[in-house]
Amino acid sequence: MAHSHSSSVNFFGSVNKVVYEGKNSTNPLAFKYYNSQEVIGGKTMKEHLRFSIAYWHTFTADGTDVFGAATMQRPWDQYKGMDLAKARVEAAFEMFEKLDAPFFAFHDRDIAPEGSTLKETNQNLDIIVSLMKDYMRTSNVKLLWNTANMFTNPRFVHGAATSCNADVFAYAAAQVKKGLETAKELGAENYVFWGGREGYETLLNTDLKFELDNLARFMHMAVDYAKEIGYTGQFLIEPKPKEPTTHQYDTDAATTIAFLKQYGLDHHFKLNLEANHATLAGHTFEHELRMARVHGLLGSVDANQGDPLLGWDTDEFPTDLYSATLAMYEILQNGGLGSGGLNFDAKVRRSSFEPDDLIYSHIAGMDAFARGLKVAHKLVEDRVFEDVIKHRYRSFTEGIGLEIAEGRANFKMLEQYALNNKSMKNESGRQERLKAILNQYILEV
Ligand code: XUL
Ligand code: CO
Question: Is-contact 143 103, C-beta < 8 A?
Fold first, then answer.
């Protein structure tokens, strides 16, 4: 397999570099809203949005679902084994360049096949990591995060760090150790844990407390090893309530925050929040972002969306402007994502099987978030919701309210106040009016 950078092989031959053409463009291979160099509030769109392409959905997946076989025959699928892994790297970097995507993300097993032993698996990984490093040297693309796939292989049937089998725990540790070395080698800005099988199916066979303790022990070992090798990227946990297990330990932002605090991990980890995981947990995406933000733990985002009619993780590309706007609102209020980014943990539909769909889908997602950024910036700038919220809580800025807010009140004092209070008057929350204003901003900005 050839590996010269300025692509001797051209996997997306029909696609030139995708450029910004503006909202009136009818060119399907152009950005309508994402103008990478446009400055919004002192930062370029590229700096704000920090888009990342997910290796697994875009270069490894083939459209297989539980009812049917692969629909996607990619140009790189003409190769097998390690040659296929190398071809994927070429395809990936060609696409990153064509979309001018600043970041990418992968699981260890997305990029290189497992061998017959852990040693052989690590050797396969080393070959691809060094190839990626070569490509990264001559391109501007950086690794947003890497992670360990500890859910596909049958050895993880009972979990990885929460397995009842200590040998599996040890194997998982070896895998994450290698993952951290990979993160260091490629300069990953973050290292992610998504507990694919860290959950349970029935309490009848589960020692829940022991599994949680082990999960925390595992995370602490990861933090210690990162320190030992001098890896300084941000650790992230990605909450998800169910699928594949019935109950996942990192169910949602609040549950994960409680876990991190309980085990003294909150200074080492932030959250990677995914839109479709939020909705699976019965929350809006913006709820999860807000919950993490107010705890100072908003780290990164897996940008996708679920189908409101389906109750599983469909990982669609994010095109919903309403959701993208409210997500960007939280991100702006957070002062950005720091070392995090917007990772398209999203896959084209099984019926969108042509290679060009991979480009169209990313353009759709990038344009949606670019638009969301612009609207959210204007909402923040005009203090649309801040002023409403400030006004709504004004009773806590003076008198008895101020006593409560500043921690000087107690029940006896409040009872006295309530007994003497002759006029208690509530005001409308005005949510329909606020939603209409939000629509005006989405339509007019
Ligand atoms: C699974 C999911 C993962 C994580 C990384 O639902 O979102 O792809 O993002 O393991
Ligand atoms: Co994800």
Answer: yes
